[in-house]
Specification:
Blueprint: H1 3-28, H2 34-55, H3 67-90, H4 93-100, H5 103-115, H6 121-138, H7 147-169, H8 175-193, H9 203-229, H10 232-235, H11 241-254, H12 260-283
Helix pairs in contact: 1-3, 1-9, 1-11, 2-3, 2-8, 2-9, 3-7, 3-8, 4-7, 4-11, 4-12, 5-6, 5-7, 5-12, 6-12
C-alpha cells in the first residue's frame, strides 16, 4: 500500500472520529450548556496535550516565537470551538457541517490581506460558488436565520483564522506549543464564563466528556499522521467525509433528515472547497500545517 493511500485512510479515520465527537456533543446538549461542554472537553484533553509536549524531542523552551500570531490563533480556536459546540446543539448535524465547511473559502479570502497571497480568477469564482452555497443553506429572506446559523458561520471564520496562523507561523513554532497555548487559553477563558451557565454534571455526562477529549486527541493525531504520509492535496479533502457521517449519525441518533436546500448547498460548498484545496496543492510547494485543534471540522 502506497504512503498516499495510507495517509488518505488515516485521515478518513480521523474525520470519522471527529464526527463521532460532534455527535456526542449534540447528545450532551440535552444535559449541559455549550460552554460547559467545551470547557470540560478541553480540560480533560489537557493532560493528553501535555504528554505530547513532554514527548517532543525538540530542545526549546515554552516561549512562543510569534506572540501576536499565537494570540490570534487562540482567538480563532476559541471562536471556532464555542461556535461549533453551540451550532451542533441547536442545528441538524448535516446543516452545521455544511456551514462549517465554508472555512476553506474564508481561508482563501483572508490569505489575501493577511498572507499576501493572490486571488486569481479561478479561485475567486470557486469562492463565489461556495458562498452561493452558504446562501442556499441559510435561505435569507425565506426563513429566520437563528443564533445557531450565526454561531456556525463564526466558527467557520474562527477555523479559517486557525489555519491562516498555521500557515504563517507553522515553520517557526513548535507543534506542541501551537496546540498547547490555544487549548490552555481556551480552557481558562471558558472557565471564567462557566458560572454564567452551569448545570450539574452527572456520571453519564462526565463519561461523555471524557470520551470527547480522547476522540478529539485521537482525531488530531490521525490528521497529523495523514498529512505526514500523503500529499496535502489528497488528505485535506478527506475532511468532507464528515458530512456523510453527519447525515448518518443525525438520522440514526437524532432522527434528522437533511433538507433539499442543505444538500444543494453542501454540493456547492464542498465542491468549491475541494477545487480550492486541490488547486492550491498543485501550485504550492509547501503543504499546510495540520495543527488545527478546534473541535469539529479541521
Amino acid at each position: 500500500m502506497s504512503r498516499n493511500i495510507q495517509g488518505i485512510l488515516i485521515a478518513l479515520v480521523g474525520a470519522a472520529l471527529y464526527s463521532a465527537h460532534d455527535a456526542i456533543i449534540k447528545g450532551l446538549g440535552a444535559e449541559l450548556p455549550a460552554i460547559q461542554i467545551a470547557f470540560f472537553a478541553y480540560l480533560l484533553g489537557l493532560p493528553l496535550i501535555l504528554m505530547m509536549l513532554v514527548a517532543d524531542p525538540a530542545p526549546a523552551n515554552l516561549r512562543p516565537a510569534n506572540p501576536l500570531w499565537m494570540a490570534l490563533r487562540v482567538l480563532g480556536v476559541l471562536t471556532a470551538t464555542v461556535g461549533a459546540f453551540y451550532a451542533f446543539l441547536v442545528l441538524p448535524l448535516a446543516e452545521t457541517y455544511t456551514i462549517l465547511f465554508a472555512a476553506p473559502l474564508l481561508i482563501t479570502l483572508l490569505a489575501v490581506p493577511l498572507l499576501g497571497e493572490a486571488l486569481r480568477w479561478r479561485r475567486a469564482l470557486a469562492v463565489l460558488v461556495g458562498l452561493a452555497g452558504v446562501l442556499v443553506v441559510l435561505q435569507p429572506g425565506t426563513r429566520e436565520i437563528g443564533l445557531g446559523h450565526l454561531a456556525a458561520l463564526a466558527s467557520a471564520l474562527g477555523n479559517a483564522m486557525v489555519h491562516i496562523t498555521a500557515r504563517r507561523i507553522g515553520s517557526s513554532e513548535r507543534l506542541p506549543l501551537m496546540v498547547l497555548y490555544p487549548m490552555l487559553a481556551t480552557t481558562l477563558i471558558l472557565g471564567c464564563l462557566l458560572p454564567l451557565d452551569f448545570a450539574p454534571v452527572t456520571g453519564r455526562a462526565f463519561g461523555g466528556l471524557a470520551v470527547l477529549a480522547v476522540l478529539a486527541f485521537a482525531a488530531m493525531l490521525c490528521l497529523i499522521e495523514g498529512f505526514k504520509r500523503a500529499e496535502a492535496g489528497l488528505v485535506a479533502p478527506m475532511q468532507y467525509s464528515q458530512l456523510l457521517w453527519g447525515v448518518l449519525f443525525g438520522f440514526l441518533f437524532f432522527r434528522e433528515v437533511p433538507e433539499g436546500s442543505t444538500l444543494l448547498g453542501a454540493v456547492l460548498i464542498v465542491g468549491s472547497g475541494i477545487y480550492i484545496v486541490l488547486r492550491e496543492a498543485r501550485q504550492s510547494p509547501r503543504p499546510p500545517v495540520p495543527v488545527s485543534v478546534a473541535p469539529g471540522p479541521s
